[in-house]
UniProtKB/TrEMBL annotation:
Coiled coil: none
Annotated keywords: DNA-binding, Transcription, Transcription regulation
Gene that encodes it: oxyR_1
The name this protein goes by in its record: Hydrogen peroxide-inducible gene activator
Domain HTH lysR-type: start-end pairs: 5-62
Amino acid sequence: MVRVLNASWLETFTTLCDIGHFTRTADRLAMTQPGVSQHIRKLEQQVGQPLILREGKSFTLTPAGEELLSIGRARRTEERALRERMQRDDPLSGTVRIGCSGSFALRLYPYLIARMQGAPKLKMHLSAAPQARILADILAGMLDLGVVTAVPDMPRVQATPLSQEELCLVLPATFNTADLTLQKLDDLGFIAHPDGNAYADDLLGCNFDDYRGAEHLRLRSFINQIGQIPLPVAQGLGYTILPRSGVEGFAHRDALAVHTLPQRRFHDLWLIARKDRAAFARVAATADGILGLQ
């Protein structure tokens, strides 16, 4: 059973069938006539059947040869179509896959929607995922672009500075922040989420001397849907810590208060892409738009 046809031999055979003459085929392919004959013999050996019947200086195709010619011409058509698609490389056509944190997704998705509205052939896939997963998917080619908080030390990945995001202590709008202490926060209760402990260690750890770690905070609730994390805070049930984009994307922003602590904490954001994909027109145009977000 033939699994993979030799592409070079198949092209020689297809060209010979189109031209109908060994010498002119050799000239067309910049080969010798014996070289053309050798390719035909090797192809016959690969398929296990004769492909042509010689009749003096001409030849006719066997039934196997006719079948193989149809395959050769179909492959040419597919390759020609592929070359045309690659040459077009339309920035407003195709699929772009992006990974980022859930909070940044709230900021990013409105831009992606606006971009798709002006480009009916453009598809945007946005996934909220942890940093390690984003990097792994970039390397595997499952994502075209990613937004991460650390520059990956990998030669196949290029990273471009995007922006900084401040970690915010998010409180109910009615909460009295006068003489704010860790005990007052603990009395209110922590609304936890997948990144909550790390954010708390970062922000609270450098602002309260009596902070002993996120595991000692009084937990009021846990939720892993980024768009819903501020909801219990807005209803006065607790406080949380989020990047600013996670606060600004909340529909009832007026029910929240962001309290600025003495020691502010910022995370650098980087836009990453695998180097061999960064030059694709649709990926490059989308990246330019993301870099332009304020």
